[in-house]
Every structure is written in structure tokens, then in C-alpha cells.
Write a structure and sequence with these properties.
With about 350 residues, the chain is of the alpha/beta class. It has helices at about 1-5, 10-20, 25-40, 45-50, 85-90, 100-115, 130-140, 160-170, 185-200, 215-220, 240-245, 255-265, 285-295, 305-310, 315-330, 345; strands at about 50-55, 75-80, 90-95, 120-125, 145, 170-175, 200-205, 225-230, 250-255, 330-335, 340. Helix 9 crosses helix 10, helix 13 packs across helix 14 (about 305-310) and helix 13 packs across helix 15. Pfam families: DNA_processg_A. InterPro entries: DprA, DrpA_SLOG.
């Protein structure tokens, strides 16, 4: 069916849907399309205002073919970006509409860092995590793609009209639904498969146990895309879905853009560094010097070199060498024939 549909142009596809003469399309699907098309506007006017991309077109993303029979017949596209190029290096960031401040901050920070690394960010244009992901990506150099459950000319939610306008300037707003179509609950669930298929990996930032974002995660898992999740507090219902994906082994736990790129990048080229705390001056000391510091009495107590060597379990010459080095480093201060800790030496 896909090859037959690809042989049609965008205008022929739309005309065929209306008349029922499109080859290779299941009659039941064609009948449903005809019913919806009868209430739709003028396709010529729609094509004059928006692009309609179908399989076989130069900018059709080939990864959507992984959906098989569930592949979209075509996509309405609005914006200055190139759909194929924007989806080649892309990450989907999805999550709860009723996101917490933690989730919004994490989503925007991840999106910005991914954009800086040359990855576009795909999301659904909704409140909460979606909006934070789009805004974070807009702060970087890479485009963001909003996949809507309504027509590309329908600002839903209405409060995001300015956000969608900003996305169109360098990125894309796309949809399976024709222009003018309003969203429905089913359309939100149906469009989630496109979000999962279009991206190289999906990151669930926050999700309640019955969140729609878990539907996107399910599609990503079924498509063998990289599925990742951001862990959250065990007391937070809005993170329960993410924590459960990790617990069941369906999603990889990630906490940074570097860890996300490790999952979707080239093997050996995008290894994320292991997070470590700051290196202190004490960390740079030798093992023997650390043992001498541990042997020193707390407070302002003074101790002689022989006692230091005994407590540290070191030969006296080694202990004396360490004492001199620690004094030079500001960890110890000499008092008569002994040494005591300084403020730096008491620090941990």
C-alpha cells in the first residue's frame, strides 16, 4: 500500500480521499476519510497555505515507515524547518501537563542542552513538560517540532499561540489532521505514535501512572526506539510513571543530556562522564599524608612525630616527610616539637 500511495502527489491524495478513487487504500479507511472530508474546507486553499508531505516526497522522514500499516497517509507541515532534516537527529521529550516545577526545569534544561549539541527536540505542544521542552530547545540553535492532535492552524491550547508562532519561525508544527480540525482525546493518543516513530529516542520527564505520555513510551518501546525516563521523588504521583518504567526495565534511567546522547549517539563517541563531586585539595594528597591527617587529634591538640607515626601506622621517616608536606600545604602548623591541625586540615 505504501508504494502505491507514494506514487500519488499531495493534491491527488487529497482528491482521491474525497472521491474514493485512491488506489491501495483500505475501503473502510477511505470511507471514514470521505465522511470527514465532506465536512472539511477546500483542499486547494489548504494546500496554498500549508505543505502536505506524503511518503516518497524528498522531505518525508523514512523512520515513519517503521509504523507499517499505522504509518500516516501524509502530514500537514507548517513552518520554516525541513522535516526530514529536523527528525534525523531528534529526541522526543514528553511528560505530564500538570508538571511540577522540578519537571518543567528539567525538561527545559535538557532541551536546551540537546539543542546545543545539534539535536532537535520533538514534543506535543501541550502544557507542562511539552511546552518546557519546546521553549528550552528554542533557546538553542536547533529547531523544535510540535506534533499536534489538531490542525496545524488551530492554536491548541490557545495560550500557546505565541509559542507555536515562535516554533514556526525556525522549526515545524505538523499534524495528521487537516487544517481547521479540532483536537479529540483519540487524536491525542493516535498522534503519540508519530512522536515516538519520528525521534531516535523518547525521554519521559514526568508522568503519572495513567499519563498520556506513557502511551508515547509504549509506542517507542514497541518500535525498538531508545526509551528513557527521568527519575523523580517516590512521594510524587507525577513521577510514578517514570519510576515504574525504570523499575520494569522498559526505560533507561537518565539524568542529563549527556546520558541521553549516550543512548542514541554513536557507540564509543557519546559516552557520558560519570558524575562526580568537586575535587578538593585533600583529594590530591597521597595515601600516607591522608593517614597522617586522620591520626591528628581534633581541635587545637598538639602531637609529636613519633605518636603520629604510631597512630598512622607509618615508619617515622615517612611520617616526618608527610608532616613537612602537610605543613607546607597549610594543613598543619608546627607548635614547638609537635604539630596541630589548621582550619584547612580540619576541613573534610
Amino acid at each position: 500500500m505504501g508504494r502505491q500511495i507514494a506514487a500519488h502527489g499531495a493534491e491527488a491524495v487529497l482528491a482521491g480521499i474525497r472521491t474514493g478513487t485512491l488506489d491501495g487504500v483500505d475501503e473502510r479507511r477511505a470511507a471514514a476519510w470521505r465522511m470527514r472530508a465532506s465536512a472539511a474546507g477546500d483542499p486547494d486553499d489548504d494546500l496554498a497555505r500549508h505543505r502536505f508531505v506524503i511518503p516518497g516526497d524528498p522531505d518525508w522522514p523514512g523512520q515513519l515507515d517503521d509504523l507499517g500499516d499505522a504509518r500516516p497517509i501524509g502530514l500537514w507541515v507548517d513552518g520554516a524547518g525541513d522535516l526530514r532534516r529536523a527528525s534525523t537527529r531528534s529526541i522526543a521529550l514528553v511528560g505530564a501537563r500538570a508538571a511540577s516545577a522540578y519537571g518543567v526545569n528539567v525538561a527545559s534544561e535538557l532541551a536546551c542542552r540537546l539543542s546545543d549539541r545539534g539535536y532537535s527536540v520533538i514534543s506535543g505542544g501541550a502544557y507542562g513538560i511539552d511546552a518546557a521542552a519546546h521553549r528550552g530547545c528554542l533557546a538553542g540553535p536547533s529547531p523544535t517540532v510540535a506534533i499536534l492532535a489538531c490542525g496545524v492552524d488551530v492554536p491548541y491550547p490557545a495560550a500557546h499561540q505565541d509559542l507555536f508562532a515562535a516554533i514556526r519561525e525556525e522549526g515545524l508544527v505538523i499534524s495528521e489532521s487537516p487544517p481547521g480540525v479540532n483536537p479529540t482525546r483519540l487524536r491525542f493518543l493516535v498522534r503519540n505514535r508519530v512522536i515516538a516513530a519520528l525521534s531516535r529516542g523518547t525521554v519521559v520527564v514526568q508522568a503519572a501512572p495513567r499519563s498520556g505520555a506513557l502511551n508515547t513510551a509504549h509506542h517507542a518501546f514497541q518500535l525498538n526506539r531508545q526509551l528513557m525516563a527521568i527519575p523523580g521523588p517516590v512521594t510524587s504521583d507525577v513521577s510514578a510513571g517514570c519510576n515504574n518504567l525504570i523499575r520494569l526495565g522498559k526505560a533507561v534511567c537518565v539524568t542529563s543530556a549527556e546520558e541521553i546522547l549516550e543512548q542514541v549517539g554513536q557507540a564509543g563517541d557519546d559516552i557520558a562522564p560519570i558524575p562526580r563531586g568537586p575535587v578538593t585539595r585533600r583529594d590530591l594528597l597521597s595515601v600516607e599524608s591522608k593517614r597522617v591527617l586522620d591520626a591528628m587529634p581534633g581541635g587545637l591538640g598538639v602531637i609529636g612525630p613519633a605518636e603520629v607515626a604510631l597512630k598512622a601506622g607509618l615508619p617515622l621517616p615517612v611520617a616526618l616527610g608527610c608532616l613537612g608536606g602537610l605543613e607546607a600545604g597549610g594543613f598543619l602548623k608546627r607548635e614547638g616539637t609537635g604539630w596541630r591541625l589548621t582550619a584547612r586540615g580540619r576541613g573534610r
